[in-house]
Write a structure and sequence with these properties.
459 residues, 5-stranded mixed barrel, elongated, binds adenosine-5'-triphosphate
Length: 459
Amino acid sequence: MLIGMDDTDSNEGMCTAYLAALLADELKAYGTVTGFPYLIRLNPAIPYKTRGNAALGIDLRLFDESDLTLREQVVSHVTGRIQEYAETECDKTNPGAVFIYEEAYDKIKEPLCSFFKKAVTDVIEIEEAFALADAFTTADAFTPADAFKSAGKCAGKCAGLNYFTMKNGRGFIGALAVCGAILNPGWETTYEYAAYRRPENWGNRGGPSRFVDTESLIEADRQTAPETWDTIDFSKKTKPFPVCVPGANDPVLYGIRGNSPKAVKEAAGFVISEEIERFCVFLTNQGTDSHLILAKSCAEIKPLHSYIISGAVFSPAETLGGGHDIFSIKDAGGNVLECAAYEPTGRFRHIIRQLIPGDSVTVFGSFKNQTLNLEKIKINETVKAFQSENPVCPACGKRMESAGQNQGFRCKKCKEKAGEKIQTPAPRRLKPGYYEVPPSTRRHLSKPLIRYTEEEKKR
Ligand code: ATP
């Protein structure tokens, strides 16, 4: 059976991935977890998200697939844990879980494939999720309204799927989407090794501040990059910043991302830290750019979606108060799009500030508040730049001087005169190629350039 779940966490603590790690260990009492638990990132521009818009899934092979009591026990166990751990007092926390049984896999696979893709790139209404699921349940399967009383008592009655929701149940969208990812492999995969703090140390339970030795993370990075990435951000002016260590209340102590389970486990082996409660290696879609839609024209662009789009720089970067840089591009049809490199992107803004009108670029990022928030940029071609200089004396070859206001230029020695300044080519330091924001401001789904294949680099 497949178990999908989402939206149990709040900014004050918890995280659905912790619940999945816990359940992946506990559900071994009922069967075998196939492969790795899934940590799937969905549309990063969704306003409902707490942090990184993650949905979690487990592919569980029961000890006896035909034993309906075993199914009931699993449903009961999972829904019980959700009720115990979900931070439901937070407005934004609306838990959802789904249980899909083997007999439904063939039929539900295709609709869930499009649902998964849509959840990563687009916006889904909760009604759409319920409509999809309802087609696979029977009238006597439990519904969101009676979820509490029937949780765990429903498995034998349904036609292949049960769901469980709390409050408005929005988490059901993510729960279904992750099952779509499990049933439709073939997408680009990466891994994350997540180490969890002992519950008594959690920030929201008054625990001590976390201890992870930064030097050991640097060593982990040195030994395993580029097979692992975004462990440390070396672009900071002051000192290396441990990107893989989250903030105060998160149960995660650190999370190491990489191309293979072997790489992330090897990296974790170098880390010196406080004692952990447990760890889990997740299979993920992080670092794959799967949220980006290739757009042909700026006219296609809609809020809350993420794009790759090409054009020519229309207006150069203007640095606003706060250090944010805004410039615009124009596509072949004359549509203009505003793009932003925000202050936390640090030195990335130095690249943006060198753009001049006419430079051909491809921009990557999410469209929010009428602006594309840059994750990456490709400089396809730079145009020639010119600077105005005093004219050169045709007799002696030296630069002329100003002859006074509105009186042109003259060479004192040769008495030669000229009317206006001349335009000469100015050197350009900006080289064609890809540039990206630093690891500490990278979106979970953004593909780091270190992961680009030779073929991708040429695109
Ligand atoms: P964390 O990273 O700490 O796990 P989160 O950032 O994943 O938290 P959630 O609390 O899970 O955030 O909130 C995201 C909510 O948005 C969930 O209810 C999820 O079902 C919903 N959601 C995810 N993707 C979409 C989408 N494409 N359209 C509509 N709703 C979505």
